[in-house]
Acetylornithine aminotransferase (Algibacter luteus), 379 residues
Amino acid sequence: MPLFNVYPLYDVTPVSGNGVYVYDEKGVEFLDLYGGHAVISIGHAHPKYVKAVTDQVTKLGFYSNAIQNPLQKELADKIEKLSGCKDYELFLCNSGAEANENALKLASFKTGKSRIVAFRNGFHGRTSAAVAATDNPSIIAPINAQQQVTILELNDISGVKAELEKGDVCAVIVEFIQGVGGLDQGTSDFFEQVYALCKANDTMFIADEVQSGYGRSGKFFAFQHYNVTPDIISIAKGMGNGFPIGGILIHPDIEAKFGMLGTTFGGNHLACAAGLSVLNVIEEQKLMDNVNEMSEYFIKLAKTIPQIKNIKGRGLMLGLEFDFEVGDLRKKLIYEHHIFTGGASNKKLLRILPPLTIRKEHINMFFEALIETLAEVEA
């Protein structure tokens, strides 16, 4: 049976990984500066991660949410401790799309409204309301398009004000650093005014931290660079270091009711074990400090390369923008220098999303390869 052909694939077959490296079936080593869409947070096959998952699966891999699972409470407490998001409540699911889907559903339950405000070049997932709030018509099927969504430009505060004052918006959903869209960010003033407008108009303010969360921005959450308090925070990618897990943090002003949200696999024993090991490593290895140090070093080197026209993002969620499309550049980095990088809807942007354990020697390797490749491209 053939696979449903929806992914354009590079001719690389990773079979193992270690730290910031992956290895193909021939034993070729690749430097991973993309982490599988920012999923690999603490490095491939981290020994504490491997041990936690292995130990748990030998005991109990899964049971439903109809029983007590103390690992869920332990995970919730650890997230609260490291994030500083006091008094929020945790609902666990399986992915970023599911996290945003539940966030939007909860906002609609809370407000009794149904329209969503989202932003140009935003990406929130591929399911129902999450994909409808995503600024990419090519992935929105007619069944998704029935959702009521208004897409505005980032920093258009007058547009946000006008839409919220109509009284039918249940949620404003925002990436504080856009991922697939190309690392664009709103201004501090914009985010803080949007937050105030949400409060004034009975609208939930949703922080999509699926890609930017878990220390990637240099703080635990990217919204913490601003003076805002989201009603709901969605999380996923780096949360499980490759194990499927997602969730939402819910402000205590939103009251839970039996049956309001639900999931079969969300918050299962294996997922919680994986999630706890990630948080423990982030804490023990002081990875958020490393993010800030490595980000500063990366940006310093990037500024020395004249072909780089713009450096976007924060922490280890970075983009290098050129005045040409980077598809061929990425291929050369993969096939000739064995380095994974990422693309974006902005075809001139190279995305850098390495494990948070990256060191200066790995950054040096990348820039040496980039300089050589740029010289070849220009020639």
